[in-house]
Design a protein that fits this description.
The strands form two sheets. An eight-stranded mixed sheet has the order 2-3-4-1-5-8-7-6, with helices on one face. The chain has an eight-stranded mixed sheet with strand order 10-11-12-9-13-16-15-14. The chain has five helices and 16 strands. A hairpin with a 7-residue loop joins strand 10 and strand 11. It folds into two domains: 118 residues, 2,3-Dihydroxybiphenyl 1,2-Dioxygenase, domain 1; 114 residues, 2,3-Dihydroxybiphenyl 1,2-Dioxygenase, domain 1 (Roll), CATH 3.10.180.10. The chain is 19% helix and 43% strand. The longest helix is centred in the first third of the chain and has 12 residues. The radius of gyration is 17 Å and the shape is globular. With 257 residues, it is α+β, with helices and mostly antiparallel strands.
């Protein structure tokens, strides 16, 4: 069980769905999660997914304006920060963009979204009563986060200055891949997109651990999801790139380390 997160560490993931209720049913079936609606006052509906009594992820419904603009459903990745105002100011000074300015979420914490200079959008979370997922890196929970970008050098420079992240190139990767380290601890990855993906915008991807990738992928397809790639084997385990029935993409991984 996780009880805290260091500054600069991934702490939370949530889904912005086109149809929140349908998405809840899909993920509850896929991972065995239970769903608890949260009191948001006059705010948009939001729920949290639980596994074995531990909170593992969140879900909200996309606003009408975003739907009308054709925004796809998305899994968001969040970084724990000590001071969300300082980090958003620093992000702007370093050439990033503040997509959503800091806002307080009913005592749970402070939220903001930034976009790095290469175009990837990332959530920031300054904890209040909610510090993030209480169970991670186990089957049915998120275990990794990747930035897919067309300019790894610019992304590394930005995040090294913003969070003091360091980067270690993975020589086993077939493409350009760097492991993110936060205070020496592995904390995600940075993937250089190939020329074949030149029209795809930069984006963060969430990995969910499962006990058996092939069985989980078959279950996902039975529930109406789709497979982009895989299963394929990597140095960290067997994985697939998949999407839910509404089109939100993520990884399933059967970890070997």
């Amino acid at each position: 069980m996780t009880s805290s997160y260091a500054h600069g560490q991934f702490c939370w993931v949530d889904l912005v769905a086109h149809d929140m209720m349908a998405a809840q049913e899909f993920y509850a079936d896929l991972f065995g999660w239970t769903v608890v609606m949260r009191d948001t006052g006059d705010g948009p509906p939001y729920a949290m997914f639980f596994q074995n009594g531990n909170v593992v992820a969140g879900i909200g419904e996309m606003e009408d304006e975003m739907l009308q603009n054709g925004m796809p459903p998305t899994w968001n990745s969040y970084i724990s920060v000590n001071d969300v105002h300082d980090v958003t100011e620093s992000a702007q000074e370093l050439g990033g963009t503040v997509v959503t300015p800091p806002m307080e979420i009913m005592g749970a914490g402070w939220l903001a979204f930034i976009q790095d200079p290469t175009g990837g959008t990332l959530g920031l979370w300054q904890p209040g009563t909610h510090y993030g997922a209480t169970q991670v890196n186990e089957p049915g929970t998120f275990c990794w986060n990747d930035l897919n970008t067309h300019n790894t050098d610019a992304a590394k420079q930005f995040f090294q200055a913003l969070f003091e992240w360091t980067f270690e190139e993975d020589p086993r990767s077939k493409g350009s891949y760097f492991v993110i380290k936060n205070d020496g601890r592995e904390n995600g990855g940075l993937l250089g997109m190939t020329d074949e993906l030149e029209n795809m915008p930069p984006h963060w991807m969430v990995y969910f651990a499962v006990e058996d990738v092939e069985k989980a992928t078959e279950r996902l397809v039975d529930l109406g999801g789709g497979v982009h790639q895989g299963p394929f084997r990597t140095s960290t385990g067997l994985m697939t790139v998949v999407e839910d029935p509404q089109g939100a993409s993520f990884y399933l991984i059967e970890q070997t380390r």
